[in-house]
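The following record pairs a protein chain with its ligand, pterin-6-yl-methyl-monophosphate.
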Amino acid sequence: MGVLNVTPDSFSDGGLYADVEAAITHGLALLAQGADVLDIGGESTRPGATRPLVAEELSRVVPVISGLVERGAVVSVDTMRAQVADAALAAGATLVNDVSGGLADPEILGVVADRGAPYVAMHWRAHATEMAGRATYDDVVREVGDELVLRVQAALGAGISADRLAVDPGLGFAKTAEHNWELLRRLEELERLGLPVLLGASRKSFLGSLLAGPDGAPRDVADREDANVAISTLAARTGVWCLRVHEVRRTVDALRVVAQVEGREFVPSDPAGRVDPA
Ligand code: PMM
């Protein structure tokens, strides 16, 4: 899954693709590098970010989604809002990636159910202005799993079928760096949910801290990609279904290596089925 943030303020690529044509060009480049799906988001969730108005979010994502779908892309919309999910699906998006797992706007679950779209429920506790204060756990892996079970139950209750669901532990969302590492150490434990797992390390700040220089300054965002590829490689070995990344080619190379080592052929799945968690 290639990340395409059409926001002025996302931490890694904010402002780069705010213009529709620039966004479409970048999306096509990610597809050429081997992305199966493009995840288009119009709201930055970086720690402390303020929310855009609904109209703003719609005007950012809908033209980019239509433009890329017209050019044959399979598109996911990264939104917590029912109204945006509905407009995105109407514009041709296939999948809804909700970082709040239906907590921010519970109506999103009904919209997804009505349209029969695949849905990714990410672990989330609070909006970006409050999430740092919610990063307290006794056992982060158990609690993230338990809270995801509740989100899955809500999705099923709203009518989304089990074979349309995937989950994501939400690296960096109401989690400290140590929480993220613990989740990565024990990723297999999420298998108890019985659902495909999506993972997005996408150059987040825990990688910047790990790679800090001798002066303690975090490694620059643009220079965290090798660490990101290492995570993708390890995650692929544990059977993660989907990796959400900014640099597609390097991740695809890593996945090809993993497939080779595991004695499998690397075959990107077919365009119709490739974003179907089932
Ligand atoms: N991270 C971000 C945005 N959307 N969606 C899912 N499913 N999982 C994530 O970890 C996730 C997400 C924020 O990171 P970005 O700035 O790289 O988009």
